[in-house]
Design a protein that fits this description.
Length: about 350
Amino acid sequence: MLLASGYNESTGGCFDATDNPIEICSCNDLANINTVVDTTGAQTDFIQTQRIDFVFCQDVLDQDYLSGEGFLPIGNSSNPFLGEYDGLGNKIMNLYINRPLVDEIGIFGYVGSNTHPHTSKLYGVENLVIVSPIIIGGDAVGVLIGDISNDIIVSNIAISSANVQGDHTIGGVIGRSGNGNNNIFDVTFSGVISATGNSVGGIVGYLIGGELSDSSFIGQVTGLNNTGGAVGYSQWGSVTGVTTDVSLQGYENVGGIVGQLRAGSGDSGTLNNTIFRGVVNGSTSVGGLIGYRWGGDNTQIVGYSTSLGYVYGSSDVSGILGRRGSGLTPISLSWTNYTDDDAIDCGPGFEFNPGNCAVISP
């Protein structure tokens, strides 16, 4: 394995808390970020300078990474990670976390809001490849981040061959993105997500405000209510340029892109330029794009999107939108391959034309 120039075998890494940025080049370095979080909240920059493979890590911190509870997530709601982590395009491989009774589970358990003291840049996590992670937690679980506050940037993240398990608010990349203008973009995920509860998404479990854009999901998602191929529950959030190729299983409010989309005012709560492929199975409020969409003031757009998969359910089932509440401006939505018994039902607010769900004026 190629080692970074600063790698020290006696300490198992490159970590030096006096550096700026702090260099991360081993499993122990990654774990050591918690020592900074506990003392200062980690209001600093970190860069990962090489591949980190947990299979080859030596345990000098008396922590077993590949059995038992595995890796300890960086930060929690009491001591959040407040810094910038730049993976520089490097990999983290074979990460293992097994903490089914603990919330806020991921490489980063909780990321809090902060800005760089010199550049005023929003902090976040970027430029990282994660391969073959196994992540098991309680609520707010994701491979990268369990829970994030507001005004955070997450970008250029690629996760593959992942296995994610939890209860409520489970996402492939982020469990819960809440309370503000988080910007999540250029994110890809492939793998399996299995949850016993609600708000389960292929990329984000629960999106409150902010935006998810230019991202994709390939794999399987299983949840209960508010289960989506990309987002389980989006509350005032916007989803743009997202594609899913998903085998999806849920109960109520189940959608190939978003399980439940709740709109607010202005441009919050929109869905644009999305494509769903695969199979959606649910019971009530089941849609190729959205299971249940409600709220807003008729200015929010759900548009320019295509459902290319199969949708099955018992009631309020549609190739596009399973159930519609108040407020919606639908534009240019289409589907093919929808094979449920009520195959020409495009959902409330639409009328069927061959190969297309055309808009009925609100």
